[in-house]
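Sorry, explain these tokens?

___
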Amino acid sequence: MKKIKLIVLLVLMGIANSYAQKKYEATWESIDSRPVANWFGEAKFGIFIHWGPYSVPAWSPKGTYSEWYQYWMQSKALFGNGNFKGDEVYQHHIKTYGEDFDYYKFADEFTADLFDPEEWAKLFEASGAKYVVLTSKHHDGFTLWPNKQANDRGFAWNSMETGAKRDLAGELSAAVKKTPVKMGFYYSLYEWYHPWWQKDKERFVSEHFHPQVKDLVQKYKPDILWADGEWDMEAEKWKTPELLAWLFNESAAKDYIVINDRWGKGIRQKHGGYYTTEYEAGKEFDKPWEECRGMGFSFGYNQNEDAHDYNSTRALLLMLIDIVSNGGNLLLDIGPDGRGNIPTIMQERLLEMGEWLQVNGEAIYATERWKESAQWSEGDRMIDHKGNYLGGDYILKQTIDPVPGKAVKEAFFTAKGNNVYAIVPKFPKEKLILKGIKPAKNSKVTLLGHEGDLNYNYSNGNLVVDVPVLTVEEIPCQHAWSFKITNVK
């Protein structure tokens, strides 16, 4: 027996060693052959953080991204949900700061004096999120860590040498890594107004982009590298296959790092690591994927957004459930202000999501897409919306606040082994009718967070569950409720 165990151990070690030693080539065929780490598909919920000099003015018209402040201001153009003249940000800037105040001066006002990385990390862990992705550098080129390439414009353009005088990325990374939460970094490939990007893209790639990414990875050994800003140039010109081959073969994070799919024009949902969507719904893929969106509309903090512009906790949780039922993850964005304070409304949403996940996490984490993602009522399933981006109210219209004639999702399904979870957006009155779930003789039905088995019967293809009448004190959670059915055939 001891010899058998030893042989098995050696075989497993050999498999692990061969995986670790596999050399990846600078081709998409080779890069795509690297599997996405299992933890990512099991995580389901992550937190996106957009934070930089744009967090100081923190303003753009509703329906636009405030982190694009520099571009909106200098180009006098706007894009998003709404009708715009185009110069709204420019006019706001002139009125507020004057004509002589250029965007780069915001670096000195980006003080982060209220930034407490330990408190941020505690909040993220309490939210139930399993990973964090911080904007190490957005399209303005400002880095949240000390980096020499950030200064090759000819002046200091990083958080260590300007306002904050701190390694913000490093501090947060160290704090998060003390928790079970994984730490990742967003990185923009391009920069709107870098002189090399505008006049010599080959130099920008070889002397700025590649060495900057390598510096970030080698210093902080992130679990995720989240690329963006790739759309203006093909991957061959970005030389991203070469960079990713280095990442997987030589970098300090080569054995575990996870990447997304934004590595060149036309690459999204075709090559790279996990696939990404943004302000979309109803997507399904045959590999790990992730939907990103803000709590309000903007990713960066936008002081122009009011309370009603923010999605409710209920809407955010239903979004999470909807995405997980389709096999994806939700990367939910928060936008701290320029002093490093996470707005109270954002903290509240995260903590309330964490409370729900404490009860219902079993139906979310490490689950898989079942044969049906949801149980629909009769009616039209098409999502109607105006604008370029899908607002968060779509999920309320599909569940608790339906439009006449439209179908609603009566239950969302996830699976783990032979167990199926039916998560319902409305607490059932007396009976819960689930279509297409066939129990075995030894199947049990329970309500997560509530003690005891529930009575049920199966007839005409329907599982009919007797739902207890519960008081406010007895009901296990708010917003949505998870019924677990074991040993489903």
Remarks:
- The two ends are 36 Å apart (CA to CA).
